[in-house]
Amino acid sequence: MKKVLILICLAIIFLSFESTSIVDAITSEQSLISLSSGAFLLEKPAEYSLTFYGFYIMDEDPETGWCSSEGEISNHIFVIELAEETVLHNLKFDSASVNIKGSAAKDILVELSNESPTEGFQEIARISLADQKDNQKFPVSSEPSGRWLRLTILNNYGSSEYTELMDFRAFGEQLTETSLPDISGTYVSDYHSDFHLMQQGTSVKGCYEWDEGILTGNFEGRIVKLIWEDSYGKGPAIMVFSSDGERFFGLWWYEGNEGSQGEIWEGIKQSQDVGSCPY
Q1: Which domains does the chain have, with CATH numbers?
Q2: What is the rounded distance in angstroms from the CA atom of residue 261 to the CA atom of residue 37?
């Protein structure tokens, strides 16, 4: 029941196409490293399968999460680009729903940088999680502002096969309100097809070269809310773009199935030229 409620809440956020500012909508209780806050996963460790993709530690669902590839149990690094320069006050972790005994993440390092995704990181927390427990909340040890967060899972509770973390949330305040560069262009998506987007003001439209796919929607900051339609059906999607507008990550659903986990949609810009689809 709890998972259903969380998914319904996310679906409401994703499907709302009102012009309200994302910054105005974010409260102190919303995780600032979530997709719905505009955070973007820049770097992740290898995972057991797409069902345990690194993004799922950011989806605010304690029943979905990340699992390492077999035999890789320590020093797993995630780098998350926050939507804005941010000060964090508290961190929260979930690990009750791990699949393998002893695989729950144990010792964790959290750092923040306002310089770049690779340099200038300052430690804000070094903590030890309890084994298989949800809602583990910790204050940070220092409060520098930053745009990039680095999470390192140092070890687990004894498994020699896998390490798992189900959810990670971070709470604080955003200090800036920046707009995304024009996202117009042609992207190569993980569906092995070109993805053409045109931004016009707050509107986005385009197509993808797969089953005569078309896209329409609106964006708020780095969050783009779309309706897709092709010969197989239609439905909603939400996408977040990196701050340079060169990459996107998103989830899509079939119409009427918005309560499900959602399918992953990723792309990398290959040209500033929007181009067109052959239909």
Answers
A1: 22-174 (2.60.120.260), 185-271 (2.40.128)
A2: 18
Nearest in space to 81 (alpha carbons), one of 184, 196, 170: 170
- Reported as a single tens digit per residue, the pLDDT across 117-171 is 999 999 999 999 999 999 999 999 999 999 999 999 999 999 999 999 999 999 9
Helix runs in the chain, H state only: 2-15, 22-25
Whole-number Cα distances in Å, 11 to 214, 216, 234: 21, 17, 15
CB 70 within 8 A of CB 162: yes
Between CA 97 and CA 62 the distance in angstroms is: 7
Tokens read off for 87: 């000060």
- CA atoms of 32 and 146, how far apart (whole Å): 12
The tokens describing 20, both together, are 């309200």
- Other beta carbons less than 10 A from residue 101's beta carbon: 11
The span from the CA of 208 to the CA of 106, in Å, is 42
For 260, residues 6+ apart whose C-beta sits below 8 A from its C-beta are 7, 253
Contact indicator for 277, 25 with CB cutoff of 8 Å:
no
pLDDT tens-digit series, residues 36-92: 899 999 999 999 998 999 999 999 999 999 999 999 999 999 999 999 999 999 999
Of 64, 63, 36, 40, give the one whose Cα is nearest residue 52: 64
